[in-house]
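Troubleshooting: if your tokenizer reports a length mismatch, compare your output against this known-good record of 149 residues.
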Amino acid sequence: MGRGKPEFGFGVHLMVDGYGCERTTLEDMGLIYNFLDDYPSQMEMTKIMPPYVFRYSGVVPEDWGVSGFVLIAESHISIHTFPEKQYLSLDMFSCKPFDTELAVENVKKYFEIQKYEMKVLDRGQEFPNAIHESAQVVRMDRMLMQRSR
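Known-good structure output:
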């Protein structure tokens, strides 16, 4: 945690695909609700609404599952489960830096994931986090435009 915000960049987007998950965990709406309700504070994030969790039944019967979402001041956490396929998809996006490796370890334990794929994106890489840096970007862009004329 305690990492400072870099001069540029909007935030970190963690994506986890979990395979071989415990089916009963993936279909438990209360468990998924509790994860979304509790995990933001473990990440030192600010939950700004209660989680929204619902059961989905699609056109293809084995594609049913549970989806959940919680909005945090720093962005969001979302989960989509497919119990029949023992699979989950989870996203954590935050403008506040967080330990992605620790988050994956916690998610693996919570949902009993046997195998996973993890992707981390740095979003908004040119997003300036302070007025001083914004002014500097504008000045540099103006200089480049003037030179190209």
